[in-house]
Input
Amino acid sequence: MLRDRQRASFRSAEVQRTPSHKRMLGRYNRRPPFLTPTRMPYRLIAFDFDGTLADSFDAFVDALNAAATKHGFHRLEGGRLAQARGASARDVMRLLDVPLWKAPAITLEMRQQMRERIAQTQLFDGVADTLEALAGRGVRLAIATSNAEDNVRAVLGPATRWVHHYSCGISVFGKARKLAALTASTRVRPEDVLYVGDEMRDADAARAAGIAFRGVAWGYTAPDALQRHAGAPLLGRPEDLLAL
Output
């Protein structure tokens, strides 16, 4: 009899917990936002590589300037460097006086130059953890870049395990077609696909392919210039993707 009364007393105490008590318990039981598993609005997220996942700007500038010396167009330095960070890819080519017909050969040479500096190229802080967290939530991940696949895999290192699809070696202005092909090959509806990049041409390519775009504030293009072109607010850090 005494034990029955004690059990009833305990049950009564549980029922009579106050709302403030419940809020206090909830505060301590709540998971950090980075670890909280929420349903993502996208089934496939594709990433640009250089300037988005990889901190390769210095290697890019060195490779471009080596090509400039060889082919006789302007080097990317001083005032031109500042201008280029606020310009589209086509405008940068005009700024440097790059012959359009030489662009494919120059791109190949730059990939080789960047391959030689691959050991000095690292992922941005937070990228590997974010890729792992996205994959853990069931999101398929892809890379769509003009860089070579072996360069991409070398920099990703162990994070390659989270990437399901690679579309690499894309021509400077061929991303829209590649993104559309990626969407079709994965059989994911365009409205369920997001492209993440750091350049105006990335935003244009996503728009042409009929998929969503989010720009990053840490890449090659100056944030204010990219924001005017991107529409949606820029991501301030890789982890911001987990809050979409």
Q: What stands out?
A: The chain has two domains: 44-56+121-243, 57-118. Residues 1-36 have pLDDT under 50 and may be disordered.
